Amino acid sequence: MAAPTLLAISHGTSSATGADAVATLVDAVATRLAAEAPVHAGFVDVQQPDVPACLADLRETTTVLVPLLLSAGFHVHVDLREHIERATGDGQAVLLAGALGPDARLVDLLERRLHEAGLTDGDVVVLAAAGSSDARAVADCERTGALLAERTGHPVSVGYIANATPTLPDVVAATRAQHPQARVVTASYLIAPGYFQTLAEKAGGDVTAAPLLLPDGEAPDEMVDIVVDRYRAARVTA
Length: 238
Known about the structure:
By secondary structure, the chain is of the alpha/beta class. Helices cover 45% and strands 17% of the residues. The radius of gyration is 18 Å and the shape is elongated.
């Protein structure tokens, strides 16, 4: 029996740089699974093909949809589930894998990005998360912040760029007031460069780390491993 297709679904972005960065991850997953399973890509928003179009093209196969999203918020619990329920109602075999985070390997990558940005003893860290109207996604981000603090030994607070509070600029300002002698280093808990990364860089931190994916390098092994693991875990159900 043929292995299920891995359908990697990212949010989508109007940033060409961000789109290139996400493409490096999809390409790396396809290379890793070249002898195991076909890999396709689509988007929840902004870019094409969208999820319904992707599923229509894969009607004759079993599909494992892996959200390339850091937290399981509205897009996972509502948007993607509705698309999948519609497809399965028409007789298609589609399984939904878990979101990428929280995961200790993302914390590994966040720590590396911080050190690449010049994190030193005495710095305090603010984790910049995209934000979500779904409390479960916010809880995922808070968990990641706690894991990052435990890993690095630096104080870590979490601020949100949209759709959740406290906002990133407010958290940066409060952190600076609480630690007036320390540098405030912003850890970017964002998939790729783009508009939200620009907002993170403008939120008031002394230094802002790069996002998890970069357009001009290979996709980090940690993220490739997570996507493959999410696919394989869901595939067991198939």
